[in-house]
Amino acid sequence: MDKKTIMEKAAKIKLAVFDVDGVLTDGKLILGESGNEYKSFHVRDGHGLVMLMEAGCKVAVITARSSNIVAERMECLGIEYVFQNEKDKGVRLLKLIKELDLEQEQVAYTGDDVIDLPAMVHVGLPIAVADARVEVKNYAVWITENSGGLGAVREVCELIMRAQNKYDDRIKRYLSA
């Protein structure tokens, strides 16, 4: 899809939804001897989410797994809509769209694996991270340059803010501090 059409779709976004494992993280699960689970989140992705919310866009995460680490990180970022242990992401997403009184074209979803496809089919801007499965890339209208957990989420946030002419205002805020 051409850049102009992608920007037009991104300009309509009021809700950006992200998968966790493979999108907000690099997809690796590190398990300690005591059974503790560890995940790595990129700080620039997190700040991109904060900037996007400050620009007026709602943010949600939907993950098929359940983790205290995810709950803690999302709370730290101020993300209000956190859905864990969701085996059918499409059903959960449709409920959220209805709850927020949005149209599907006002929603972006970023995923990396086939479990994300049921959600991606219900949005106006389906996005795949650079290292996503080919099936996900084939459905996406935009593919990030960075891999999941390594700046892909920041790219999505900046795409939406730029399309809505809000990115420069976010940057000016830092320059005037």
Notable characteristics:
alpha/beta, Rossmann fold, 177 residues, two-stranded antiparallel sheet
Describe this structure in words.
This protein is an alpha/beta fold and 177 residues long. The chain has a single domain, classed as HAD superfamily/HAD-like (Rossmann fold), CATH 3.40.50.1000. The chain has 8 helices and 8 strands, in the order αβββαβαβαβαβαβαα. It has a 6-stranded parallel sheet, with helices on both faces. Strands 2-3 form a two-stranded antiparallel ribbon. Helix 1 crosses helix 7 and helix 2 runs parallel beside helix 7. The radius of gyration is 15 Å and the shape is globular. The N and C termini lie far apart (38 Å). The mean pLDDT is 96.
Which secondary structure elements does this structure contain, and how are they paired or packed?
Elements: H1 3-11, E1 15-18, E2 30-31, E3 37-38, H2 43-54, E4 58-62, H3 68-77, E5 81-83, H4 89-99, E6 107-111, H5 117-120, E7 125-128, H6 134-139, E8 142-143, H7 152-163, H8 167-175
Parallel strand pairs: 1-4, 1-6, 4-5, 6-7, 7-8
Antiparallel strand pairs: 2-3
